[in-house]
Specification:
Elements: E1 3-9, E2 16-22, E3 27-30, E4 64-68, H1 96-106, E5 113-117, H2 125-138, E6 143-148, H3 155-163, E7 166-171, H4 188-201, E8 207-213, H5 220-231, E9 237-242, H6 248-252, H7 258-273, H8 281-295, E10 314-318, E11 322-324, E12 342-345, H9 372-375, H10 384-410, E13 413-418
Parallel strand pairs: 4-5, 4-10, 5-6, 6-7, 7-8, 8-9
Antiparallel strand pairs: 1-2, 1-13, 2-3, 10-11, 11-12
Helix pairs in contact: 3-4, 7-10, 8-10
């Protein structure tokens, strides 16, 4: 049993208190053993699918289908999770008809969501347009979505996306955009096209601006302020997590030192507690989900991976029918554990076998981590040094949500957590120990 002793501080009164948390049963109690909130078993939880190299994942009854058009992109983001992935043959118009004709053989019913992925999907406009139109004719009720950097938008594409019923995510990191390349918002023509699409879809709840955090973009408050100035008060910010390092570029964009980790956690906490990141969907989702886990005693056994691509009803495929681990890899690439990212083919659907994923329960760190129920295992296919760097990023990214949720529930902010996790993570915000005083860059924690 992973049990954590949490030391909390009331920022208004300086009063201290101790709580006990079990990440396996979602129990949070005070020193007397009383639950901090009423617990109601109103949800029947089922065990999550456990997928690993030794427990290959299967696919069936697909509800979310991700179609990879290819990995070509007109930008070169320094932390791009596709940057060093070997590119399979690009898809083209000739692939559409065979792909559509194959669907009845393996897609048993209309999926709930179809996502169209690149690279940059609009690089593949000549393929994307007829493909989506053929799929819309076949699946009139399916939700379509696409994520774009926005640099190739124009009036024709905007009108088509609106008419076709697409949900659109615009990739933009606010003041940290320099890690992606030239900001299209600095180009008057491109900005006009982006804002035109925003005015078409934003008020309908069909468009978000998706930001990623990295070592040169560490304040959600600053990102929100930037995006509000560009898109208005009603901007909805998607994504919002710290990057996963898929290669050396991602590692270079990760938090480099203990001092960096403490500074990032403090910035994140201050933004949360002062209401400066409330337009980030991730804030409401993660804090709300964690509180719900306590209120409904959610067992860890029911917690799946963060991205859910190891689930049997979620699948990524290219137009050649190759089934792949996720949309960020290709059929000719391998995972860090040495297994092929091509996990099967739609023509042999029953023999699809995902061996590239590692469920959190099969890792040493995750079952013993206080933020398990929020982090949900980070990237499922990272391994070795990339996994270690990603784990550090994920802990620093999720511990402020953990602390903020517990403060909401108890009035006490966790500042020190004892337990079976790594000793260097006990001092949550660097207020007690962990780094020499002259290296500390602690931002004062001010109450709302």
């Amino acid at each position: 049993m992973a049990l954590f002793k949490i030391y909390g501080l009331n920022a208004l009164t300086d009063e201290k208190a101790v709580f006990y948390y079990d990440n396996q049963t979602s129990s949070l109690v005070n020193e007397n053993g009383d639950s901090v909130i009423p617990v109601e078993n109103t949800i029947t939880y089922t065990d999550a699918e456990v997928v690993s190299k030794d427990l290959p994942g299967k696919k069936k009854d697909i509800k979310r289908l991700k179609i990879s058009l290819g990995l070509e992109c007109n930008y070169e983001c320094t932390y791009c999770n596709q940057r060093f992935v070997p590119h399979a043959d690009s898809t083209n118009l000739n692939d559409i008809t065979p792909f559509i004709e194959s669907l009845d053989g393996w897609l048993k019913e209309e999926p709930e969501v179809i996502e169209f992925w690149g690279g940059e999907p609009l690089v593949y406009w000549k393929t994307l347009k007829p493909l989506a139109e053929a799929l819309r004719a076949k699946f009139p009720n399916t939700q379509f979505s696409v994520i774009t950097n926005g640099s190739l938008l124009d009036d024709e594409k905007n009108g088509w996306l609106e008419t076709m019923g697409f949900n659109v995510g615009l990739s933009h990191d606010g003041p940290g955009y320099h890690a992606r390349g030239q900001d299209p918002l600095n180009d008057p023509e491109k900005k006009m096209a982006i804002l035109d699409l925003w005015y078409r879809l934003g008020p309908k709840g069909r468009m978000t601006v998706n930001a990623m955090m990295h070592k040169d973009n560490t304040s959600r408050g600053d990102v929100e302020e930037f995006l509000v100035k560009e898109f208005g008060e009603n901007v909805s910010i998607g994504e919002g997590a710290f990057i996963d390092p898929y290669d050396e570029g991602g590692v270079a964009s990760s938090l480099q030192t203990v001092a960096d980790q403490y500074e990032y956690r403090n910035k994140s906490l201050v933004d949360l507690r002062n209401g400066k990141a409330m337009r980030f969907q991730i804030v409401q989702t993660k804090i709300g989900d964690f509180i719900q886990s306590i209120a409904t005693a959610r067992p860890a056994s029911s917690v799946g991976q963060k991205c859910s691509m190891d689930r049997s009803d979620n699948m990524a495929v290219d137009l050649n029918g190759n089934v792949i681990t996720c949309q960020n890899v290709s059929a000719i690439s391998k995972g860090p554990n040495g297994e092929n990212h091509k996990i099967g083919h739609v023509s042999d659907f029953d023999n699809i076998a995902m061996k590239t994923s590692t469920h959190w329960s099969q890792r040493e760190e995750c079952p013993n981590c206080p933020v398990l129920q929020i982090c949900k295992g980070s990237c499922m296919f990272l391994d070795g040094p990339l996994w270690e760097s990603g784990c550090d990023n994920a802990f620093s990214d999720n511990i402020p949500f953990f602390a903020g949720a517990i403060e909401v529930l108890t009035g006490f902010l966790p500042y020190y957590i004892e337990g079976p996790h790594r000793r260097d993570r006990f001092d949550v915000f660097g207020l007690i120990e962990g780094i020499p005083k002259d290296e500390k860059k602690i931002i004062p924690i001010t109450p709302v």
